[in-house]
Design a protein that fits this description.
CATH architecture of the largest domain: Alpha-Beta Barrel
Distance between the termini: 45 Å
CATH superfamily of the largest domain: Aldolase class I
Number of domains: 4
CATH topology of the largest domain: TIM Barrel
Structural class: alpha/beta
CATH class of the largest domain: Alpha Beta
Radius of gyration: 24 Å
Length: 504
């Protein structure tokens, strides 16, 4: 075991997806998994195989899409969960099963209704069963942060003897302070020695997940579990980008510890997660927030112009961020376009390039200035392909000053052209009602967001909707266009197509 290597375990696709409204379809999960491989994470928790057929399918697909990183499925200490996990990852080149059971007094008494001895027995049985599917088994003591150290040592000893190779000690409810996490991890590191890797998994309920994770590293944890943008249940998880950049930036403190993260892929990974989930990081978010490298104060501006390190402890270029610049337009050729995409981290086949270039030309005709973020959104839209049951051909709308509005749409469905119109309380409502009429599938809008992708008066509108169709869970749809209403229609159609795809 390399004691200086910090193993980065990314759980964006599992714990991150548990963030309210952050559900992803299979195509989106596969695209994100491939980006995480580019980012250089060591382990990807691809999902919870037993949770749903969709999760199982996504894990299987991810196993076929990546080859360099270890693919992991979560499972409760229950035989059917572990079986589902084992079957979902069987085609992975590198595989892991992550099984867990609660170890805190409050969880054992009220949730599990099991004695400590019964909990240990279930842990042993689950690990032994998981070992029949793969050699790499991680065991988590759920709510370790509120567990008794003496009991943690007892169950960890049993877990290692049963075959667990990684022991995760999560602060499941984000309760502990850095000093407390440091003490718990330090005690277990001394107790375990070289018999297993100790892992940390921190939540941000008190805003200390990153500080707690760093404390765990200093105390001897050699695996950190985190998510892109800090996405996750309740207040979120440890933000991957913040921890790895802290290790890099403060090498004076952390050396010789290191990660294998490709730092220049951080910003692209962040934007992909934000685009897919529709959850934008707050502007002042460390590392990847839009203000992270912005300077408003005249004093700060003057200092940065004289010497960047006066007010910048890292370079924007380090995370793959370049200042927006107008480098492409309607007169640009495919060679320049390809070079720009490569500089942004995209490598396309000739057929893919031709398809995207055609869409770029349409965008360039509609927009005077093309920025990097325009291209990133265009690429995300292209790479995360959802089967198009319905496609927009044309949209027209009108609205009077009393709030009444109408919309008329022409859609393509199975080579058939369908047309209809509807009235609504505003144009957006009219568009949604028209799509419902044409498709015969009624949607219930739960959230609607509009943002400008880049800058300028002709900036593209990025619309994100969250919709319930019939008995579905929340479906996310994205629409991108220089016309906000067309982007709105595209977003709703995108959600509808995702729903239809999931049903098939």
């Amino acid at each position: 075991m390399n004691k200086n290597k910090i193993i980065v375990f990314d759980t964006t696709l599992r714990d991150g997806e548990q963030s309210p409204g952050a559900s992803m379809n299979t195509a989106e999960k596969v695209e994100l998994a491939m980006q995480l491989e580019k980012l250089g994470v060591d382990v990807i928790e691809a999902g919870f195989a037993a949770a749903s057929p969709g999760d199982f399918d996504a894990i299987e697909r991810i196993c076929g899409a990546v080859s360099k990183i270890r693919v992991c499925s979560l499972a409760r200490a229950v035989e059917k969960d572990i079986k589902a996990a084992g079957e979902s990852i069987k085609s992975a080149k590198f595989k892991r099963i992550h099984t867990f059971i609660a170890t805190s007094p409050i969880h054992m008494e009220y949730k599990l209704k099991l004695s400590p001895d019964e909990v240990i027995k279930k842990a042993i049985n689950s690990i032994k069963y998981a070992k029949t599917f793969c050699d790499d088994v991680e065991f988590s003591c759920e709510d370790a942060g509120r567990s008794e150290i003496s009991f943690l040592k007892e169950i960890v000893e049993a877990a290692i003897n049963a075959g667990a190779t990684t022991i995760n000690l999560p602060d499941t409810v984000g309760y502990r302070l850095p000093s407390e996490m440091s003490y718990m991890i330090g005690e277990l590191v001394k107790f375990v020695g070289d018999r297993a890797i100790i892992s940390s998994h921190c939540h941000d309920d008190l805003g200390m997940s990153v500080a707690n994770t760093i404390a765990c590293i200093k105390a001897g944890a050699r695996q950190i579990e985190c998510t892109i943008n800090g996405l996750g249940e309740r207040a979120g998880n440890t933000a991957l980008e913040e921890v790895v950049m802290a290790i890099k930036t403060r090498s004076d403190v952390f050396a010789p510890l290191y990660t294998d993260i490709n730092f220049k892929e951080i910003y692209h990974s962040s934007r992909l997660v934000a685009t897919i989930t529709g959850i934008e990081p707050q502007p002042n978010k460390a590392i990847i927030g839009k203000n992270a490298f912005a300077h408003e104060s005249g004093i700060h501006q003057d200092g940065v112009l004289k010497h960047k390190e006066t007010y910048e402890i890292m370079r924007a270029e380090d995370i793959g961020l370049e200042k927006n610049s107008i480098v492409l337009g309607k007169h640009s050729g495919s060679h320049a376009f390809k070079d720009k995409l490569v500089s942004l981290g995209y490598n396309l086949s000739e057929d893919e390039l031709a398809n995207v270039f055609e869409k770029f030309k349409i965008l360039a005709d509609a927009k005077k200035e093309i920025f990097d973020d325009d291209l990133r959104e265009l690429m995300t839209d292209e790479l995360v392909k959802i089967p198009c049951a319905f496609e927009i051909i044309a949209l027209s709308s009108s609205e009077c000053n009393k709030g009444h509005a109408s919309a008329a749409l022409t859609l393509k469905h199975n080579d058939e052209i369908l047309k209809d119109s509807a009235l609504g309380n505003g144009v957006v409502d009219a568009i949604f009602k028209t799509i419902d009429r044409i498709s015969g599938i009624k949607g219930n809008l739960k959230d609607y967001q509009v943002r400008a992708v880049s800058q300028g008066k002709d900036a593209q509108a990025k619309v994100t909707v969250k919709v319930l169709f019939e008995n579905s869970s929340t479906i996310i749809g994205h629409g991108l266009d220089t016309d906000t209403l067309m982007a709105t229609a595209k977003a709703y159609i995108g959600a509808l197509n995702s729903y239809i795809s999931m049903k098939q």
